[in-house]
Recover the amino acids of this structure.
């Protein structure tokens, strides 16, 4: 399943618009049956995945004719097609939609990683580099990239803020954030990279580009291949069950007191006993 020795890079960018990933500017609310969140709101591409798409497009602009293709892939219900079109309008060449039935439970990281492994295995030209967001903002698992690298036995570089590729040596230099600052990794291709928000904070060059109207119109003509979990021979049935989801307790308003004695009286009313020093 390793790519051929061709010098041109084939980049795969997994993106997410799952039913639980609502627009990050929307207030999250629990639904009435307390089994999840209210989904009757605006949805958008996972912001970490937007950065992954931007990084892939920027990489091609730097390497010019050294990148053969940028392909985006998403696993989700029919509405996920909108997210694929957005990525194509940002500059990706083609897309793959592993379509799930409407209302199907969202797959878990291991299932997604296995599906991506199957997609890579079906790519005739091979895949040299996978660039994906470090996590999704709905479940915050942050596991899929690492699991995919493990399943493929590929090198991995997580929390990346900068990616440089030497196509002649088939190597990549990845700058990533660690507790003590920044770390630079040198990895051999094929490689799985997960992107962080640090690049967006430091420089506007990693800010995801706006999908202009002309590019949106062009994206409608770009190829999107539809696959199914059955075709890929992967089982996306969740292994975990959500029993109940509740909102945090609403914060009570505060009050001012005029003296220490009044404060102690209020604490006693609330059932809190002051501790003697």
């Amino acid at each position: 399943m390793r790519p051929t020795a061709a010098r041109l890079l084939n980049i795969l960018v997994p993106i997410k618009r799952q039913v639980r990933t609502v627009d990050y500017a929307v207030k999250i609310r629990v639904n009435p049956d307390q089994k999840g969140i209210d989904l009757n709101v605006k949805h958008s591409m996972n912001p970490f995945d937007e950065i992954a798409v931007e990084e892939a497009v920027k990489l091609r602009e730097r390497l010019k004719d050294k990148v053969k293709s940028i392909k985006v892939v998403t696993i989700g219900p029919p509405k996920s097609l909108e997210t694929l079109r957005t990525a194509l309008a940002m500059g990706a060449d083609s897309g793959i939609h592993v379509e799930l039935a409407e209302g199907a439970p969202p797959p878990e990281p291991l299932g997604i990683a296995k599906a991506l492994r199957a997609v890579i295995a079906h790519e005739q030209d091979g895949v040299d580099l996978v660039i994906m967001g470090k996590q999704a903002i709905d479940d915050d698992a942050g596991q899929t990239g690492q699991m995919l690298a493990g399943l493929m036995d590929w090198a991995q570089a997580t929390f990346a803020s900068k990616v440089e590729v030497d196509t002649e040596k088939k190597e990549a230099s990845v700058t990533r954030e660690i507790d003590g600052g920044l770390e630079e990794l040198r990895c051999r291709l094929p490689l799985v990279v997960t992107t962080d928000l640090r690049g967006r904070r430091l420089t506007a060059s990693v800010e995801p580009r706006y999908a202009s109207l002309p590019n949106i119109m062009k994206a409608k003509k770009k190829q999107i291949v539809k696959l199914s979990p059955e075709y890929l021979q992967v089982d996306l049935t969740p292994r975990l069950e959500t029993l109940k989801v509740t909102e945090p307790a609403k914060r009570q308003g505060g009050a001012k007191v005029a003296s220490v004695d009044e404060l102690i009286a209020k604490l006693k009313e609330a059932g809190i006993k002051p501790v003697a020093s």
Notes: The domain at 9-242 is CATH 3.40.50.620 (Rossmann fold). The chain has one domain: 9-242. The chain has eight helices and nine strands.
